[in-house]
Amino acid sequence: MEIEKDRVVTMHYTLRGDNGSVLDSSEGKDPLSYLHGHGNLIPGLETRIEGKTAGEEMDVQVPSGEAYGAVDPEKKFDVPRSQFPPDAELEPGSQFRAEGEGGPVVVRVDSVEGDTVKIDANHPLAGVDLNFKVKVVEVREATAEEIEHGHSHGAGGHSH
Ligand SMILES: [Zn+2]
User: Fold this and answer.
1) Where is the PPIase FKBP-type domain (predicted)?
2) Would you say residue 158 has pLDDT above 80?
């Protein structure tokens, strides 16, 4: 059975960034199970594995533009130190939840320069070309309930 819309795909994957470092992997864990064609994976990955079948293994390159997009300079901004709680730990890499235009977003501290905190609200993988190694474990028809919910209910279709 081939990967196409309204089918549940179970797969192992390893994600590497531009420099070859592993960013995420299902190795040693349960494989990932998702409903294809419902925007559950980044679009550039779903498109490229369409038509594959169980047992197939492939390397998939997804340019940043089809993954998490380019780095948006407007999502980098300066915030006065005084706007944070006094006990907030502000170090490069610290993460905070903030209200964005489209709902809550996670922002990161880039650096702290004097009384100015430099914030980056871009996705951590913005601007990064992604390299996936994918091994398709199983492809099955989704249940009506899964299609209605827009997500997989696990390898067997029952968990939630
Ligand atoms: Zn559900």
Assistant:
1) 6-90
2) no
Partners of residue 145 on adjacent β-strands: none
> What is the reported pLDDT for 84?
85
Ligand 1: distance of its center to the CA of 155 in Å?
13
For domain 2-68+126-149, which CATH number applies: 2.60.40.1570, 3.40.50.2000, 1.20.58.760, 3.10.50.40? 3.10.50.40
Is 160's pLDDT higher than 80? Answer: no
The continuous run of DSSP H or E covering 49 comes out as helix 43-49
Of 44, 46, 50, 48, the residue nearest 59 (C-alpha): 48
Distance 154 CA to ligand 1 centre (A): 10
Expressed in angstroms and rounded, the spacing between residue 79 Cα and the centre of ligand 1 is: 39
Ligand 1: distance of its center to the CA of 37 in Å?
Answer: 15
Average pLDDT over residues 19-41: 94
